[in-house]
User: What shape does this take?
Amino acid sequence: MRLIPATWQLLFVLWLGCCTLAVSAAEPLGKPYKKHRPAIALIIDDLGNRHDAGKRVVSLPGPVACAFLPYGPYTDFLARQAHAHNKEVLLHLPMQAVEPAPVMLGQGVLTLDMTEQQFRATLDYDIAAVPHLSGLNNHMGSLLTRHPGTMAWLMDAIAQRGDLFFVDSRTTSATVAEQLAVEYGIPNTSRNVFLDNEPNPAAVRAQFRKLVAMARRNGTALGIGHPYPGTLEVLADELRRLEQQGVQLIPVSQLIELQKQGRSSWQASLSR
Assistant: This one.
């Protein structure tokens, strides 16, 4: 039997290594979901304007979703980095608030005085600005999200694409965004806890533990934070110890699916 030359052996080993890498890259986001264990999902908003803070978010352990403002100077680069790190990428969609924003919302903001054509054109530009999109959540929007007409335009546009989910950040208790998402058949969920309305580490840690406690009670919970130093410090610490506490961190899309299954079970029990 003729032996394979050493050169061919080396090429064969390298080929096997490339195949292994390709399989690894195709693995799903996060670890496999374990039934009957509480689960949380996390979104970090306002990404794209600062490089170093964005890199810290991308480096957080686990499938922390990254929500990018359109036209941020680092949005395109960091969104690609997040995708490469198996993190879901969201468009953090700027929307008009009731009170004037303390800082300008920037380009791509959706406002109540837009015509439907202007609204849809702006939304299209915003979506095109962020690569590898899995979903959207609102930036500000305490005025816009309470208006069924504009939310219907938004949900109709998302439904026509058919490949995005929607997260209601709930910047107002009067929001109808989640209701309209349900009516248009869009996978959706809403924020349960803001992690860093007070961005000091002690307050963030307390909010994170509130999120975990909510997941223990209800099965799932969604938290939203921002790339503040205190928030990132706490998350880097808490996320590494989450498994030991019997709680799992899952992608937002998986949390939405779990919540949908839970609603279906509840509706089935009512029917019975």
